[in-house]
Amino acid sequence: MNIREKIEHREHLVFSPYAAFSDASKGRDRYEEPCDLRPVYQRDRDRILHSKAFRRLKGKTQVFLEPEGDHYRTRLTHTLEVAQIARTIAKALRLNEDLTEAIALGHDLGHTPFGHAGERALNAIYPEGFRHYEQSIRVVELIERDGEGLNLTWEVRDGILNHQVHTIPATLEGRVVRLSDKIAYISHDVDDAIRADIISESSIPDHVTKVLGNNVSDRLDSLIHDIIENSEEINDIIMSEEVSAAMQELRTFMFEYVYTNPIAKGQEGKAEAMIKQLYGYYCEHVDLLPKEYITLYMSGQATVERAVCDYIAGMTDSYAITKFREATIPTSWSVY
Length: 336
What we know:
With about 325 residues, the chain is an all-alpha fold.
């Protein structure tokens, strides 16, 4: 029995009967010889962590475009915070932490530059629409490794695709990530908004603070404890009605005072216009796409428009700005 097999055996001794066991995975699209050290979900976690798309998350907006200060969240720090929350819950519920972390680390790989502003722009201009969770699947199945994809297990891909609010992941680990994503962005966006003097702790509705607590740490603690206490020994991941309602009230408050606030979102119109212009420019100048994206449409794996969408979605904020300048400002003027 090698190390991987010993780990898989321990899972059956320790995990909840509702957990996703590594040796029961539905597998990968392309068969691979099992690793002698790592179970399948640990391999997936490692592949995502070492991917180019994951590294680019550090240069992508979470909520605030180009904030002045070093402590505002990026898409990467958000992803790491989701992973931390999700692992805490999974560990307490005796679920598969490797699967949970793999889904968490991969859930936003397809996010655009400039946060949801970039997503809105591509969704408006690309004929088939654009959704970041579907793009995350394209990244891991097709775009990474020069068109080969990461060949992740079915369970990880299911969790990535279904982490948004309208569908339900097949595994409890995926459902943990789905809730952890909501907890992370609401809690930490509050923290960033307070740092930016857009809101204050005292402006948060009294009912929310009464149920969840008076600061970011207390609210995280309340939400995480509630999920664990209500999900123990059952085949679901749920919250109590009271805590769920309080979190929804906080989310509504954030949409009213932060997510549509002109201070936080004042530059989003410019970002959307930039993304749309880049899309039109590259559709007309396909030869300027990087080689891997030209290969996508030349091989029939994507239309020109889809390949352009893939390229733009993978950009960091700063890279998109650089490419926009290259596309719109004559070189001779750039010195002024």
